[in-house]
Amino acid sequence: MKLKDNLIAEHNQRSIDLHRSKFEFLKTQIIDFESIISKLIDFQIAIPSWALGNGGTRFGRFPGGGEPRNLEEKIEDVGLIHKLNQSGNAISLHIPWDIPKDYQAIRDLAKEHGLRFDAMNSNTFQDQKGQEESYKYGSLQHVDPAVRKQAIDHNIEVIKHGIELGSKSLTVWLADGSCFPGQLNFRTAFQNTLASLREIYASLPEDWKMFIEYKAYEPNFYSTTVGDWGQSLLYASKLGPKAFTLVDLGHHLPNANIEQIVSLLLMEGKLGGFHFNDSKYGDDDLTAGSIKPYQLFLIFNELIEGMNDRKMNHANDLGWMIDASHNVKDPLEDLLQSVEAIMIAYTQALIVDRAALKEAQLKNDVARAQEILQDSFRTDVRPLVAEARLRAGGALDPIGLFRKLEVRQELIKERGFETVATGL
Ligand code: AOS
Ligand code: ZN
Ligand code: ZN
Ligand code: ZN
């Protein structure tokens, strides 16, 4: 289904007065609001193809209906999100789940929805039908060169699909590791992985980036071969200038200071991008900002600080992606909430008084430094985010409109309850 522009305009008209009064009030508190609005309009977040249906856990899956059944419908769903919020103009594909049958048709469809293709994701954590070698004991780290070769070839194939679609990056997330002490030799596993990554790296086009995603544990529970940002940074540094670290917010051990990791990776020029989500315990893949919104703000605070320092472009120089899984919510509503939470955290970080913060730090004025950050975090910037959306042609209240237009019911009518396998 496609949403008509006039429906969005009509919907906005109904709540415009209330919006205006909230926005006028906020304007009086924010000096640079026009430049913030233009930054918000430019800022786009990629939606993962695997988050458009209900996920599930190993205990079960409760599909909600109307889920996309193929790549075309996944693109359509991201198109719906983008139409509503004008902030999700990219889709991140996963191979082999999203192998395009006809590149031209897929490119045209994405264009029709105003979408581009963000990072391509490879998959060497499952065995596919008809595959010769098994990834049970790892892929790029494997003791058997034949398994490593199969995994390398797969990644190169993913790059080729990406080139056809105009993507510019490959995300490598490996499940490689071990479940028990003694199962593998850490250094051999690292060296095998590095050698395999080098071969993949050699196939990257000049203008591509490789993102190396780390994760503390799961599915391996004793060691993970790209287990933390240190290991990811080691690989990325050894590989070369096109390799970067990718930070998935759910991939740390409890209480890790993610904002500090982000700050240092930025300083080293090795931060590639994000998989935004939230978590309480582990790789929970919950809605961004739903559990720890202050952490999300602090991450953006470091991002703005570091990106300004390095004269980076907020909109284009990093990969802004969501990685999510929805067990109990409508996936489209959940993704709309995630994008909104990210935009809010970004805005709050943009309004931090950086000169005052620097001064407080130089004077060791700890209380003042905290006041400055929390002043921004506790400012209700939602009218600013809504104003940016309005000016870009989106809906003032995306979820409200999604419900009012009964989008999910329409999708169920169109697609029924048949479901596809979704990601992790
Ligand atoms: C796995 O835990 C990682 O978060 C991956 O980034 C992602 O979930 C996967 O590539 C999708 O299958
Ligand atoms: Zn991820
Ligand atoms: Zn994950
Ligand atoms: Zn995750």
Automatic annotation (TrEMBL):
Annotated Xylose isomerase-like TIM barrel domain residues: 100-285
One Pfam entry name: AP_endonuc_2
Record key words, sorted: Isomerase, Manganese, Metal-binding
Entry's Gene Ontology molecular function annotations: isomerase activity; metal ion binding
InterPro entries xref list: L-rhamnose_isomerase (IPR050337), Xyl_isomerase-like_sf (IPR036237), Xyl_isomerase-like_TIM-brl (IPR013022)
Gene3D superfamilies: Divalent-metal-dependent TIM barrel enzymes (3.20.20.150)
Domain of life: Bacteria
Name under which the protein is recorded: L-rhamnose isomerase / sugar isomerase
Organism: Daejeonella rubra
